[in-house]
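User: Show me a protein chain along with its predicted structure.
Assistant: Here is one chain, sequence first, then structure tokens.
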Amino acid sequence: MFDAYIFDLDGTLIDIKDISWFRKFQRRVYEEFGVFLPPDDDLYTALKLTNSESNHYLLGLGIQEPRDYWQRLEEEDYKVRERLLAEGFLKAYPDVAALDRLKGKIGMVSNTPESVARLELRRTGLIHHFDLLYTTQYNEEHSKPHPNGINMVLGKMGVSPDKALMVGDSELDVMAGQAAGVHTAHLIRSHFHNYDKTTPTFFINSLDELPALKPPKE
């Protein structure tokens, strides 16, 4: 078994389904700032960049105060997810029950803003599972795949990287875990995408497989 399990949130523990709802309110926020992007724009450019790069991108679009844009995006994200959680559209995956069977410490490292992450964990009844939470903002320099969040969580837990497992649904999670020196488990959800840059320690089809996993050298 592992001494610590570190989880991603959205797409790993929370089923966020079709993310068209995210793109809709993101487009509304852009329009509040006078930015009207083409209909086929995926709107994710600023979210995929580092802090300085994304702010430069937003300035190029005519948004003079990028911090105001990020704040409004978080406010709208919270409001929309609060409604979708109440409607049952967003909910925890059934296999999150496996967290009850884990013997090690449990942490979360997510690029989802703290206000939104805590809302999801409270509404789905998952928050009591976690010893530590580490969240970032949309465009923070230390967002995954940067290992900072994992390093901080392990440091506070007092767990060495070789005894920890990062669990996530995306290659960003694996990249962050490998940069932190921990073992990694890629959880194959319906939105699975093939990996281009990394190979995780484990591929798993359900969180139910976690209690039986051991560090490879054990």
